[in-house]
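re: the backbone from monday

yeah here it is again, tokenized this time
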């Protein structure tokens, strides 16, 4: 008889993502994907269980900020995982534990993981030390490569929808926000009554009406701080357990996701800016009121925010900011205001950036096979 714990474990598995028996033998090969980063408008901050979000979130998929990964694999006899990671051609031993942890949770859904040795050749389009979250683009690129290999082990490839859904499901197991980096445009992760098809298990492309102004929205990432973060996202999420304002924050995020629906449909930029900036500051307010508390913003972050506000007041240009779990500022604006905003960046904002660095990006189309 199987011990109870094995039954309990099987019951927690999501049957939809367990593969049927493989039919093909593939001894070695190589697959490659390019996957983008994303920027959340309504933020994910707080999780439970196996990488399940405490509230729903929505993000713009980015275009230029992306990770390209080539996964070389060859069959092996031994048990255990064999993983080598190269970033820009250089072996990175410190990346391996995170990938091993991901392999451990992904193993039931990708049962071939112990049967191959893997070498990941990865590179980011953004500077390595830019402080831009590479876990979303990196984990989604890896999930896509592994699924591509799984497709080769079957008689017929999965249909495109099932493939993207399982890719998002797997990416989520590696890093929550990575689930939102498979599809392009606006993407929702987390079950929400107002978003049809939404799920805690994987992200979906936002299925509702979107005003054309958001289809080519611009995001310039102002690189304020390019060093290692003082508190990682994973630790920050953990501090939401027992946080005095946690429940209110989760309710606020879900309410904001409901509120953003008519805003996105009508192209109401005033309401969009108010909601997005409030989300960013609420996220950082959670950090300020965690125990232990921490601050990820820097003086330059605040200087940039204040200048964006005064610029908006002076010119009427609808430019606003959002923040990740870090000091960098994402400056969001409609494409028709590119020139005015980019003049401001060059004339003033870049002076607050580390080495004057920034990245012009915008809404992208999602991950692509290379
Ligand atoms: C502030 O996805 O990096 O960017 O699930 O622990 O890998 P893990 O965390 P991560 O958290 C991202 C948090 C955020 C907001 C967001 O992207 O929604």
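seq for it, each position gets an aa:
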């Amino acid at each position: 008889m199987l011990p109870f714990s094995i039954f309990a474990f099987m019951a927690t598995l999501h049957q939809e993502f367990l593969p049927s028996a493989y039919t093909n033998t593939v001894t070695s090969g190589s697959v490659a994907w390019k996957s983008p980063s994303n920027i959340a408008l309504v933020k994910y901050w707080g999780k439970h269980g196996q990488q399940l979000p405490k509230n729903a979130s929505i993000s713009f998929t980015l275009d230029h900020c992306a990770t390209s990964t080539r996964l070389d694999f060859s069959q092996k006899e031994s048990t255990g995982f064999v993983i080598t990671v190269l970033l820009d051609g250089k072996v990175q031993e410190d990346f391996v534990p995170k990938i091993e942890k991901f392999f451990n949770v992904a193993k039931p859904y990708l049962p071939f993981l112990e049967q191959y040795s893997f070498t990941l050749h990865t590179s980011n389009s953004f500077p390595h030390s830019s402080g831009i979250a590479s876990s979303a683009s990196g984990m989604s690129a890896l999930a896509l490569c592994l699924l591509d290999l799984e497709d080769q082990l079957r008689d017929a490839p999965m249909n495109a929808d099932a493939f993207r859904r399982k890719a998002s499901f797997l990416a989520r197991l590696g890093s929550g926000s990575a689930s939102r980096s498979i599809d392009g445009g606006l993407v929702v992760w987390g079950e929400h009554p107002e978003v049809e098809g939404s799920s805690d298990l994987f992200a979906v492309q936002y299925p509702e009406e979107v005003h054309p102004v958001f289809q080519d929205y611009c995001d310039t990432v102002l690189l304020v701080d390019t060093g290692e973060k003082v508190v990682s996202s994973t630790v920050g999420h953990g501090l939401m357990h027992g946080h005095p304002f946690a429940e209110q924050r989760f309710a606020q995020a879900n309410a904001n996701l409901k509120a953003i629906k008519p805003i996105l449909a009508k192209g109401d930029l005033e309401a969009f800016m108010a909601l997005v900036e409030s989300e960013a500051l609420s996220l950082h307010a959670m950090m300020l009121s965690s125990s232990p508390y921490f601050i990820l913003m820097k003086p330059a972050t605040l200087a940039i925010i204040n200048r964006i506000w005064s610029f908006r007041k002076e010119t009427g240009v609808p430019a606003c900011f959002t923040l990740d779990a870090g000091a960098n500022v994402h400056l969001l604006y409609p494409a028709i205001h590119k020139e005015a905003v980019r003049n401001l960046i060059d004339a003033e904002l870049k002076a607050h950036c580390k080495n004057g660095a920034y990245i012009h990006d915008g809404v992208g189309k999602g991950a692509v096979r290379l």
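The pocket of DP6 is lined by residues 40, 43-45, 51, 57, 133, 135, 175-177, 233-234, 237, 283, 324-325 (CB under 6 Å). The chain has two domains: 24-206, 215-368.
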